[in-house]
Amino acid sequence: MKRVRLEDLSLHNFIKNTVLQYFIETETTTLSYVSDESSVGSYVYQSSSTMIPSPTSVGRGWTYFDNPGDTTEQQSSIIVYDEFASVISGSNYMVDYIDGRIITSSLGVVPDTVEYRWHYVSVVDEWPTAETSEVPIVVIDIAGFEKEGFQLGAGKRVPRIVNIDVFAVDTAERDDIMETLYDGIYLKCCPNQEFSKGTPIDWDGTFNTAYIYSTISGSSDLKFDDATARSIFVPLSSIPDREMMMLSDVNRYRGRIRCEMFHWDEGW
User: Structural domain tally of the chain?
Assistant: First the structure.
């Protein structure tokens, strides 16, 4: 992967798992067996959550780290119980953190209930639409970049313009999320990860056991400068038809944080 994509992944991971740690909720739900042809030899149990927003909607999911800064799979954020309310050892199942499922390979292990922590704020890299999104949403976008020398000989400073857009359910929530994001990047830095063995979550929603936390050799952490935050008001009277009026519900309480994210690279 090119550096800009690695930096985008690093920033996304930092915002979701560290900066927005105060917007993590806890829920306990029952589990129901589901037939899944893609999981041959396994038994899949689905959470029956009715929360709004849904813990498994786009950009959310169950938490796979116990604490901010952790680099190994959670050990206490997800607790699974059998029908006798006894805790089932984590070695007896896998967790699908994206779709909210417990996967076992033994008929002798029958999950009944799960207590889990989940991301209340959806963190995505694409603009939300009225039909598919559940606010609150945070959209991370690297809007532009350039490269410039910072010393004689090899080396460069790589600045990138970053927009972080917030879509909330009301003004109070918008302001809370915006200030949390601003405080999370102001005079802070983000690990510039290499992701040599992939991201923490695998393609099937389970934790990537090959994941290795490492930063890019020869590069500094990702730093933030010139951060600004502002509210954005969308005049509803300017939206002519019903479809755009639906879209306005997503845009009703918006804000944007804009900053320069940069790092120093020792090589060319």
Answer: 2
Q: Whole-angstrom distance between the N-terminal and C-terminal Cα of the chain?
A: 16
Both 251 and 149 in a single domain?
yes
- Please check whether residue 162 is in contact with residue 145, taking contact to mean a CB–CB distance below 8 angstroms: no
Whether 182 and 139 map to the same domain: the answer is: yes
Same domain membership, residue 133 and residue 10? yes
Q: Give how far Cα 111 sits from Cα of 22, 40, 85, Å.
A: 29, 18, 10
Q: Domain of 62?
A: 23-119
pLDDT string in tens for the chain (268-residue length): 788 899 999 999 999 999 999 999 999 999 999 976 565 568 999 999 999 999 999 999 999 999 999 999 999 999 999 999 999 999 999 999 999 999 998 878 899 999 999 999 999 998 876 666 789 999 999 987 665 555 555 578 889 999 999 999 999 999 999 999 999 999 999 999 999 999 999 999 999 999 999 999 999 999 999 999 999 986 655 555 555 555 567 888 999 999 999 999 876 4
Which residue, among 207, 213, 211, has the nearest Cα to 98 in the 3D structure? 207
Q: What is the pTM of this model?
A: 0.89
Question: The CATH number of the domain where 134 resides is what?
Answer: 3.30.2000.10
Could you write out the DSSP letters of every residue in 208-249? -TT----BPTTB--EEEEEEEEEEE---GGG--SHHHHHHHH
Find out whether 62 and 74 touch, Cβ atoms under 8 Å.
Answer: no
- Could you give the 3-state DSSP secondary structure of residue 182? helix
